[in-house]
Specification:
1 helix, two-stranded antiparallel sheet, mainly beta, Porin, 12-stranded antiparallel beta barrel
């Protein structure tokens, strides 16, 4: 899962259009901090990341993405789905699993619906926590994103066993084949559970190689 996809989950995770031809790509990059859906994943630490994606000719896709959380824990994601377009409308459905290497870590499984028209995209997620202790929690997530010439603004909201909202604004460019982006995250509620409403700037750079 590339940086743009992971952080523009923020801009509609997996709102994909059918590829003109089958394509394999890999990506590497780094983040000044790793925020996902408005929540800090690394406690203000920088993170390295890498991933691989395969887009089929018929609109299906599969991929994997991983990030360093700290010196002893990594995250790796597996995902796949289908995306296409019809008369200017994009739509997609997919699965994503988020897994962690630390002992006793909680994994997450999601069914993701996405759609968009022009500069507006939205996603709706149904997710489940899968803890080694056997405890589970169900949650939902909704986001609405507007994009214009590299800039985007996202509102995201959690529901069910989760609760809270955030907004994210950012801008990205491609400079000599390297993707550069700067994002500002503003929690409207205490999403991190630390008694604070986090605010943060995150700088990301990544490079994608089409194979």
């Amino acid at each position: 899962m590339n940086t743009l996809t992971k952080h523009l989950i923020a801009a509609g995770l997996m709102t994909a259009s059918a590829a003109a031809s089958a394509e394999l790509s890999v990506n590497i990059g780094a983040m000044s901090d790793y925020y996902f859906r408005g929540v800090d994943q690394t406690a203000d630490n920088a993170s390295l990341m890498a991933g691989a994606d395969y887009d089929f000719e018929n609109g299906f896709y599969i991929g994997t993405w991983g990030a360093q959380l700290d010196d002893s824990e990594q995250e790796y994601d597996l995902y796949g789905g289908y995306g296409s377009e019809y008369e200017g409308f994009s739509y997609g459905i997919g699965y994503a699993g988020y897994f962690y290497t630390a002992d006793g870590a909680t994994d997450f499984h999601e069914l993701i619906f996405s759609g968009g028209y022009g500069p507006i995209s939205a996603e709706y997620v149904l997710g489940t926590e899968d803890a080694e202790s056997g405890d589970e929690a169900d949650y939902s997530f909704f986001s609405l994103t507007g994009e214009y010439e590299g800039a985007y603004l996202t509102y995201g909201s959690f529901g069910k066993d989760y609760d809270g909202d955030y907004v994210e604004a950012g801008y990205g460019i491609n400079y000599q084949g390297v993707d550069l982006s700067l994002a500002y995250i503003n929690q409207l509620d205490d999403l991190s559970g630390d008694g604070k409403k986090d605010k943060a700037f995150v700088f990301t750079l990544s490079k994608t190689f089409n194979l």
